[in-house]
Amino acid sequence: MRALALAILGSLNAAVPVAGAAEPYTVVLKSFAFAPATLRVPVGASVRWLNRDEEPHNVLNLEGKFHSNAMDTDEAFSYVFTAPGTYHYICTIHHQMSGVIIVGAAP
Rg of the chain over CA atoms, in angstroms? Predict the structure, then answer.
């Protein structure tokens, strides 16, 4: 059980960029899934969703905070999270695709 918990924590940490890096946090849309499906970021972080599928996808926050247009292959959408909270989102084109951004203090 401990090994599983460490593996999960390791995968969450792998999604966190190095402090001071110019790149935003990135969620990749590939194989009809968001990767990572859950991402923890600090307040003020920019998150970029990048479509690597051959099919168009979009991003819709279920609370109405953000919504992208349909993104074709290699197109991206970004949003800056200015308030702490848990932000659930889906692709409205492919409803099985869902994800969560958790915004708080330093991840």
Answer: 14
String of DSSP letters for 70-101: PB-TT-EEEEE--S-EEEEEE-SSSTT-EEEE
Q: Are the beta carbons of 28 and 35 closer than 8 angstroms?
A: yes
Residue 66: strand, helix, or coil: coil
| Residue pLDDT, tens place only, 51-61 | 999 999 999 99
What is the 8-class DSSP label of residue 8? H
Q: Which domains does the chain have, with CATH numbers?
A: 2-104 (2.60.40.420)
Q: Render the burial of 25-45: b for 16+ CB within 10 Å, e for the rest.
A: bbbbbeeebbebeebbbeeeb
| pTM of the predicted structure, to 2 decimals | 0.76
